[in-house]
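Let's practice the habit of predicting before peeking. Look at the sequence and jot down your guess about where helices and strands might fall. Then scroll down.
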Amino acid sequence: MRGAKGLQARTDLPYRACVGVMLLNRDGQVFIGRRRSEGGGEHVSDGYAWQMPQGGIDPGEEPYQAALRELYEETSVRSVKLLAEAPEWYSYDLPSMVAGRAWRGRYRGQTQKWFAFRFEGDESEINILRPGGGHHRPEFDEWRWEDMRRLPELIIPFKRQVYENVVSVFGHLQPGTATQP
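Done guessing? Here is the structure:
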């Protein structure tokens, strides 16, 4: 389908394959980073700058390996243990005001495979200002540990349903639940 100016309709565009990482500390709190104001095309509101690490899957890369790579590239963290993998891929569409500039307008949004990891290192391992040993551009300018239940209210609204799904599927990893590993 083509619009009046010959632009492809957004619904005809594919989703960008991506991974997301819920990194939990020993107390069951989740790592969130505040996206840098110049952090990318998806970020459209300062009130919702907090998110978990996420990023694209490279050609030929398995989602699990992409999750480990993205986590390292955004936080420098490598000391992790896999706790769970979401059973489904979760997708979101970009708002029209962002869709044309994010990823050069090639995607309508992202479809994400989510992984939960336990952080087993010391907090000194976390380095968001020189992530990936200083070989990657910083995505975050601040970070903190947050209660899992609060994540959906902190994320930008067009990603909220994905975060609600992730919290639901990984909710058993919170302290005080019967099936916590």
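How did you do? The two ends are 49 Å apart (CA to CA).
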